[in-house]
Design a protein that fits this description.
Strand content: 5-15%
Strand order of the largest sheet: 10-9-8-5-4-13-12-11
Helix content: 40-55%
Largest sheet: 8 strands, parallel
EC number: 3.2.1.78
Pfam family, one: GH5_mannosidase
Number of domains: 1
Number of strands: 15
Subcellular location: Secreted
Distance between the termini: 30 Å
Oligomer: single chain
GO molecular function, one term: mannan endo-1,4-beta-mannosidase activity
Radius of gyration: 22 Å
CATH topology: TIM Barrel
Structural class: alpha/beta
Main location: secreted
Shape: globular
CATH class: Alpha Beta
Order of helices and strands: HHEEEEHHEEEHEHHHEHEHEHHEHEEEHH
CATH architecture: Alpha-Beta Barrel
């Protein structure tokens, strides 16, 4: 496996160089002024980048960190093109489906994706990780170990989410059931955020996962650079408290608690990005009138000590109208630009659009629309990248391998069946890889390579 990865890095370097030279020769711009000076310099930089990545094979990965409003690895920019596949742990728990985990990482790696977001929870359900508070199924934990070790083989980092707001895979509802079984007499699932016993259940889970020693790699999770970040919760909402105070207090406690155990990894909340009571002037940007009443507050929540970057989701087909509409793409652009602006002006941190997609079940859906949606997200990220802004990357929902159609929620993308979508994803990965390898945090866009990079990043037929 190590031989395969090392060969892949040399190949990537060569592909980046060939892609760059093809782009420059086919564009309408006059590139003669670059050929002698900058093209050679960039080619050397790409090859040097490949060699540096090879060196990393012999050493432990560096942790992803933040510097101002950007992600960095070893003081180089780390802009993200990634994906979601939430069920990896459950599939890894069964020998008959474990190979699908490897397939997902292999396919994602083939189009240059570098980050995957997945669940590090399954509470009280079928193939539960946590069968009851602080009681774990070791076989399922070993399955999560496999996911982490397999991701490392394909040089894909993981955002691991620690609990669900929704009932799928247990979520806060399961914690309430456990509380009631212990005699608490709780009447709302939102007691998850406020009741001290349920908070203690969650914190015990956090402590167990972060201190887990991987049975495949012998590396403790909190020491493993394969893990990009911890996510406190998938899409937290506290509908019973529209002021947002209850959720805010929970975020404060849990972000601090995660950092008290693990100071090395990044932490994010898992929010959808809705504007709340602290910024009523931003309500008009929300996708609907209900969004500011669900107990979340994008700017206020992300100002909590211990939160390292912002998360935003994008689902116009469920937030605005189920039918595909012409208004959806402009909404996506304005939604993203508003959150990038907020991350720069008020938060001073990167923002990742950690879920986005469109359901094939939506009336009016076609593959061309999905491609346009993905292109809209990617180009908005690039517009921020060009300026050294807070738009740090995106994670499409969701990537599936062949033969898993029965798990499709309508959003699944199977690369082998979607050549146009695969090309768009690969192009974005190439552009971001070039930027990550050719610039440094000191260089940014003021370096001598700026003109060539602008040509590469914005040439549609790269």
């Amino acid at each position: 496996m190590e031989t395969h990865v090392r060969f892949g890095l040399r190949t990537i370097s060569l592909v980046l160089f060939l892609t760059l030279t093809t782009s420059l020769s086919s564009t309408a711009f006059d590139v003669s002024e670059y050929e002698d000076r900058e093209s050679v310099d960039i080619a050397d930089s790409i090859l040097s980048y490949g060699n540096e990545m090879e060196d990393m094979e012999e050493n432990e990965w560096q942790m992803v960190q933040t510097k101002a409003n950007q992600f960095v690895v070893n003081d180089q920019p780390f802009y993200v093109n990634g994906f979601n596949t939430y069920w990896l742990m459950v599939f890894a728990a069964d020998e008959s489906t474990r190979g699908k985990v490897t397939e997902v990482f292999k396919h994602a790696s083939s189009v240059g994706m570098t980050v995957c977001r997945t669940w590090a929870f399954n509470d009280g359900q079928w193939r539960a990780l946590q069968k009851s508070p602080s009681v774990y199924d070791e076989d399922v934990f070993k399955a999560l170990d496999f996911v982490v070790s397999e991701a490392k083989k394909y040089k894909i980092r993981l955002i691991l989410s620690l609990v669900n707001n929704w009932e799928a895979y247990g979520g806060k509802a399961q914690y309430v059931k456990w509380g009631n079984a212990a005699g608490l007499n709780l009447t709302s699932d939102d007691a998850f955020f406020s009741h001290p016993t349920l908070r203690s259940y969650y914190k015990a889970h956090v402590k167990t996962v972060l201190n887990r020693v991987n049975t495949f790699t012998n590396i403790t999770y909190k020491e493993d650079p394969t893990i990009f970040a911890w996510e406190l919760m998938n899409e937290p909402r506290c509908n019973s408290d529209s002021t947002g105070d209850v959720l805010q207090d929970w975020i404060k406690e849990m972000a601090f608690y995660v950092k008290s155990i693990d100071t090395k990894h990044l932490v994010e909340i898992g929010l959808e990005g809705f504007y709340g009571p602290s910024t009523p002037q931003r309500y008009q940007l929300n996708p609907n009138a209900y969004a500011h009443q669900v107990g979340t507050d994008f700017i206020r929540n992300h100002q909590v000590l211990g939160v390292d970057f912002a998360s935003v989701h994008i689902y116009p087909d469920s937030w605005i109208s189920q039918s595909i509409a012409d208004s959806h793409l402009p909404f996506i652009k304005s939604w993203m630009e508003a959150h990038i602006e907020d991350a720069e002006k008020y938060l001073g941190m990167p923002v990742v659009f950690s879920e986005f997609g469109v359901s094939a079940k939506a009336p009016g859906f076609n593959s061309s629309y999905r491609d346009n949606l993905i292109n809209t997200v990617y180009k908005t990220i690039l517009n921020s990248t060009k300026k050294g802004g807070s738009g740090a990357g995106s994670l499409v929902w969701q990537l599936f391998p062949d033969g898993t159609d029965y798990m499709d929620d309508g959003y699944a993308i199977v690369l082998s069946k979607s050549p146009s979508t695969s090309s768009i994803i690969s192009l974005q990965s190439t552009r971001l890889a070039l930027f990550n390898s050719l610039c440094s945090t000191k260089c940014r866009w003021g370096c001598k390579k700026r003109n060539v990079l602008e040509t590469v990043l914005y040439h549609d037929e790269l």
